Amino acid sequence: MRKRIRSTLVLAVVLGLSGPVSSATAVNATTQRGPDGCAPGYMCTWPKVNFGGQITILPDIEPGNCFFNPVGYLSAANRTTVNQRLAPSGDCVGGQRLGPNTYIRDLGSRHFSVGGYP
Question: How many Å apart are CA 98 and CA 117, to the nearest integer?
Fold first, then answer.
């Protein structure tokens, strides 16, 4: 069974292109720094360790769904009720699990996808 992969349109946000961004939203890092900047019910990633850089906010990702982040990330906070898989690949294969309401300050290497994990 192939995982359904949806682009988060992060690239459009990072490049400053206008238009709706339905599956991911970038927010000014100065107002949303650290895991507390990630609202309950969302999965958030940061491009730098210790929650540095511009936050990417993803909706609750159900098992079987995968979001690709072309910029990549080094920090993550899971404020959802679902385990999330943080993968160095672009297709949510491999990587590590991040349980509900937990965070990681430094993944050790750049990761590019987030997927709901049973």
Answer: 9
Q: What are residue 84's DSSP bridge partners?
A: 98, 116
Number of CB atoms found within 10 A of residue 23's CB: 16
Domain membership of residue 93 as a residue range: 4-117
Report the predicted TM-score, pTM, of the whole model to 2 decimal places.
0.73
Q: Closest by alpha carbon to 57, among 71, 78, 84, 85? A: 78
Tens digit of pLDDT for each residue in 79-107? Answer: 999 999 999 999 999 999 999 999 999 99
- Looking up residue 90, the CATH number of its domain turns out to be 2.60.20.10
Burial class (CB in 10 A: 0-12, 13-18, 19+), 60: middle
Longest dimension (CA), the chain: 41
| Separation of first and last alpha carbons in the chain | 15
pLDDT (tens digit per residue) in 37-87: 999 999 999 999 999 999 999 988 999 999 999 999 999 999 999 999 999
